[in-house]
Amino acid sequence: MSKVSALYPGSFDPPTNGHLDLIERGAKIFEELVVGILRNTEKSPMFSLAERLEMLKTLTAHLKNVRIEAFHGLMVEYAKSIDATCVLRGIRAVSDYEYELQMALMNRKLEPTLETVFMMPADKYSYVSSRLVREVAQIGGPVKGLVPEVVEQKLREKLEPAYKFHDEMQEATARSSGAKETKRKRRV
Ligand code: PNS
User: Fold this and answer.
1) Ligand 1: which residues within 6 Å by Cβ?
2) Which residue, by CA, sits nearest to atom 5 of ligand 1?
3) Nearest of 128, 134, 130 to residue 162 by alpha carbon
4) Atom number of ligand 1 nearest to Cα 76
5) Cis peptide before 14 (omega within 30 of 0)
6) What are the two backbone dihedrals, phi and then psi, of residue 13, each rounded to the nearest 5 degrees?
7) In the β-sheet with 86-90, what is the strand arrangement from edge to edge?
8) Which of 101, 129, 170, 188 is least crowded, fewest Cβ atoms below 10 Å from its Cβ?
9) DSSP line for 62-77
10) If you average pLDDT over every residue of the chain, what do you get?
11) Spacing, Cα 9 to ligand 1 middle (Å)
12) Rounded to the nearest whole angstrom, what is the distance from the C-alpha of residue 10 to the centroid of ligand 1?
């Protein structure tokens, strides 16, 4: 098989353990893997493009054939500009399939020479998405194990008031159930 350069495009807002798992798998089978972060002007992302670039660069520093870049416009045009002949996308569950199939077929219509390759992340990440991570973190909930530690740290910094409030509530609940337990034991 000839050596293949692939593009793994996405929003990565924020990068999750599922993304990282897929990058590591992709890096093993492609000669070169470019992770392309979409510079999306319509959506207002939680993390700026610069932050996403920095996080992904840190997370993939150990993978010598992986490069992190940003792109805008049509993904197929960007793929062509970097000589990628393959697009890598992850499929976690059947629910991803319909959207991914539509996108792959549209991309094939736009650029018939570009092949889309689907890979599955480890099953332990099959429910992990950037959207759900953002949702949990915005309420100060724990995202340990769902995102790499650097991302967890960044989420805590960005959403400090939410985390502070959540931690205080947890402590208050623990104190009040501790007090109830002491009363119950005294009664027994
Ligand atoms: O991680 P995401 O947000 O699901 O990634 C979606 C992405 C960035 C791969 C897709 O929206 C994309 O390729 N956008 C660039 C514009 C484009 O080419 N659109 C046509 C897609 S069929």
Assistant:
1) 9-11, 38, 74-75, 103, 106-107
2) 10
3) 134
4) 18
5) yes
6) -120, 80
7) 66-71, 32-38, 5-10, 86-90, 115-119
8) 188
9) T-TTEEEEEE-S-HHH
10) 94
11) 7
12) 6
CA of 3 to the centre of ligand 1 (A): 25
Helix (H, G, I), strand (E, B) or coil at 115: strand
* Rounded-to-5 percentages of helix, strand, coil across the chain: 50, 15, 30
Ligand 1 atom with minimal separation from the 12 CA: 1
- Quick one: what percent of the chain has pLDDT higher than 90? 80
One-letter amino acid identity for 108? R
Per residue in 100-135, pLDDT (tens digit) is 999 999 999 999 999 999 999 999 999 999 999 999
Q: pLDDT band for position 3 (50/70/90)?
A: confident
CA torsion, ordered 93, 26, 66, 14, to nearest 10 deg: 10
- Pocket mutation for ligand 1, best pick of 75, 80, 106, 109 (most atoms within 8 Å of C-beta): 75
pLDDT of 1:
55
Catalytically active residues are: 19, 43, 92, 130
Residue type at 93 in one-letter notation: A
The letter for the amino acid at 139 is: I
Between these two residues, 167 and 96, which has the higher pLDDT value? 96
Q: Which has the minimum average pLDDT: 24-38, 49-63, 67-81, 174-188?
A: 174-188
Q: What is the pLDDT of residue 149?
A: 97
